[in-house]
């Protein structure tokens, strides 16, 4: 085995940029699966609904944490830069933070939207 | 000799790889240093020789992106015209009530082929074609990273497309709609569904090949300095769409696999009488089908993202917002598939999730449209033919988006489901989201592709005919649908109130056709006498407009060092430096085609690796692969197996003779005081990324089969049915152990080989082969011995399907191990040059996981339920 290269800092990682939508996707798959199983196997609507609420709270907490870290990485108050078009590591870091922050917002909306049916619909039918 | 040790490194120590050395980034003074005239000329001659396009009949062996991309695009456009003719014939039939222009059977074939061809033979391939053609230009790269793979994809597409579309001439097309719902499609007589399943699976393989190529091209072949925040927006979209293809197409391939097993072997996956469920197909189809709409839409809107800043003569407004939009849509579009299935009786709660996600996807989609409009508002807009088409696209797409918001609401969808309202909606989104931007893009990039301009007058004529005709054709369909006319009916009674609406639509469809024909004429009319275009006719700012006029086959004169999003606007000295060959690899001393490999995020140069040149082997490989997919349609299984073996042999020959060749020297001087390795293995190598990406797609297909098992488990009370034989635990365990052992042996072999213990490595590779064979045989025995009968019920059928899937992958794993063993014996794979072994190990990580999941599904799952 060759020696591993030094780990890349978080701010140079594309994976962190897409972490929030990944949480959205996991949340979506989980609530779909929970509903399918709870409704098909047991007709247990309330179990499904409360599990969904718990999962949504968890997902939103994860997205919020990610949004906060992305906001810190974007570091907007320091230089109020939202264009990021310079060929520097700083602009790249801020850009990935900015995009990650915006994706967190969209993902949070996605999670809230997907939770609404469980608030409004109280039946497996 | 092959096992000669590196004299500088003791046995047992890992042989170090060559690494970049010298100066990076280059200074302004270095870039200002002129190149002496005679040196510049000599280097240009070297490049010209290395990149020469084959002439005469050898032309078709070309693999250059500028050739393959054009063939690809023209073929896709040709298929589009055919599918358009089918649409016109459908419209003639529907023009008046109780018409008998087409009989019902032919009508069914025509609408099925219209949809299938437009989606599989036009929309998706067109994205691949245009990306292959343009992406290297956007990225200042010489070519795509795997030119022969592009060519292979193209030939596969051509063969598959002619086969599928040709069936219409023999009255043997599929006729159950482009989504092939069982039981209608599983029960259809004749070869129609088989043509659809096998022909399109073949084309999907080509699509995935293109996705691999485009992702690796974007991630690893950007020019030095083009950090991720400077990447052209088109490349962002290509990246997102490439990844989407990897997760969207495999479920359909898995579905096709099950479907074809049912058609040819009578295994009842979709037959409710024997434990199957037709809805499984709908799930697998739409997990593919809905993201596919966005796979079609995003790259087209990406063209708009290139045209709009040029039209506005200023940088795009909200670059980060557009990236958000592309990535966000890429994710959210996977949460929409059930909105095609609102009427199938799923729990309301589930419908709610998909309805909500369908509404949420509007947010990122809207963001990019607003960013375009904002760019146009703050810029100084110059009207140009491309911008006219883009404006038309935005108008029509927005209309389609608005009806989309309506039908995303389940109760509204219940009213208009399967009516002409849906036909209107989908054509608004696809015409506005795909056809208009693509045509705009062709007007825009035509000077880049052919060095000549298309006609402004014909563009205007074509645009207005298409735009007006489109609205005449499709706007009334909203009303036709609301008045209750169902889709896919061959005719309708005179007193239903649909006749005048249909007549208007038919008139409109012919106006659209006239518009498209004007465009087609403008595209292909001879332009030999026309003067060449100026180099940058639209005064654009992005890299592709540094192209050579007249054309040179080398892609870029030198691979530039990038410091801005719009180098032609913001870097005054750029073109001078570029043309002078002051950037990287301005020469080809060994007459090799090369490209620069850079790191994924910050685009720091890592290597200058050779890329493959012209070859016939790709055509052979595509032809044999075609035979493997096409011959089973006619139940010629032996011939198909022979073709399969020949396809594998062709691919092995292709890889052995042209990829990962041991270089003469480990590094090369690439210019500007920088020396780069010419051979890299592991995660720096484009080939490793290609394997990784392919295996992501492959795992998605496997995950879809696993989804199938759990779907049956939730949807059916009798899965597994009481008293049915279960796979044998002992042999299942043995197979798991075999996969684990083979994987471990492969991983250790890689380390030992790198430490120059070549003999040990070879022994381990042979052991891995043996263990893999044991694992596969155990898997077969685990199913065969207890007497699972796949024709009797979906449960044994599913177990067999997963077993076949894993066994086929194990066979491939064995071939790869033997390839490495042969490489080690014949000097293609050495302790230092071990890329093939890295790639094989990577494959085995995935295979081991597949083997273990298979063992759990067979051994543990049925006993737990």
Automatic annotation (TrEMBL), chain A:
Keywords: Membrane, Transmembrane, Transmembrane helix. The chain crosses the membrane at residues 14-38, 50-71, 101-121. It comes from the Bacteria. This is Transmembrane protein. It comes from Algicella marina.
From TrEMBL, chain B:
It holds the Pfam family COX1. One of its GO terms (biological process) is oxidative phosphorylation. The chain crosses the membrane at residues 68-90, 110-139, 151-170, 195-216, 236-259, 293-312, 319-339, 351-376, 388-410, 422-446, 458-480, 500-521, 613-631, 637-656, 688-710, 730-751, 763-785, 797-821, 842-861. It is a multi-pass membrane protein. Residues 1-30 are annotated as: Disordered. One of its GO terms (molecular function) is oxidoreductase activity. It is found in: Cell membrane. InterPro entries: Cyt_c_oxase-like_su1_dom, Cyt_c_oxase-like_su1_sf, Cyt_C_Oxase_1, Cyt_c_Oxase_su1_BS, Cyt_c_oxidase-like_su3, Cyt_c_oxidase_su1_bac, Cyt_c_oxidase_su3-like_sf, Cyt_c_oxidase_su3_a-hlx. Its EC number is 7.1.1.9. It catalyses: 4 Fe(II)-[cytochrome c] + O2 + 8 H(+)(in) = 4 Fe(III)-[cytochrome c] + 2 H2O + 4 H(+)(out). Keywords: Cell membrane, Copper, Electron transport, Heme, Iron, Membrane, Metal-binding, Oxidoreductase, Respiratory chain, Translocase, Transmembrane, Transmembrane helix, Transport. This is cytochrome-c oxidase. Residues 689-863 form the Heme-copper oxidase subunit III family profile domain. It is an enzyme of class 7 (translocase). GO terms for cellular component: plasma membrane. Residues 45-563 form the Cytochrome oxidase subunit I profile domain. The keyword Heme applies.
